[in-house]
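Q: We require from you a single protein entry containing the residue sequence and its fold in token form, and nothing else.
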Amino acid sequence: MISETVFEARFSQAEGLCRMGADIRIEGRRASVFGVERLFGAEVFARDLRCGAALLCAALAAEGESLVHGAEYVERGYEKIETALSLLGGEPFEPENQPGLLELSRRIKAAYPEKSIWSFTGYLFDRDILAKKLGPWKVTQELLSYLDVLVDGPFVASLKNLNLRFRGSSNQRLIDVPASLKTGAVVLWDERQ
């Protein structure tokens, strides 16, 4: 259950997501979200920035073709959203989350091979992920093969630094995943890119 306590009408994406097969029930300022096996392509309408981004993500994961109207909302808030994808939130490398993200990553790379995929994790790349501590290694290994950059390490409030790019605290690293997998050691991503 999600409760919105600041803004009204913040669940505009629910209508479109339900058209794609999601099970979301809105009651006032609360949304109850129930898991479904899959989403299906549909014609949907973005009503604002967050709605458009949510519908685009759902369309990428859905079976079949989707048409998302209202791209101007997304373009206004996300510069070149079509060139990159980030896997974040809910800990992507938890064993139960990896199969779904693996399937999404496979589909995105097949459809858009030039797309850059980033992931954010509270785990450490060398200590936890490469040490094969996070579920079936074949799944983790294939998921890693689709990633371009991994931001690893937990956010640490005492190390918070607003001057850092793409991360919140100085203990977090920007890892060049293909180069790291090739060498077997952590290779940091060149931030000047």
In short: The chain has a mean pLDDT of 89. The first helix runs from residue 13 to 19. The beta strands are 2-3, 23-27, 30-34, 43-45, 67-69, 84-87, 116-120, 149-152, 173-176.
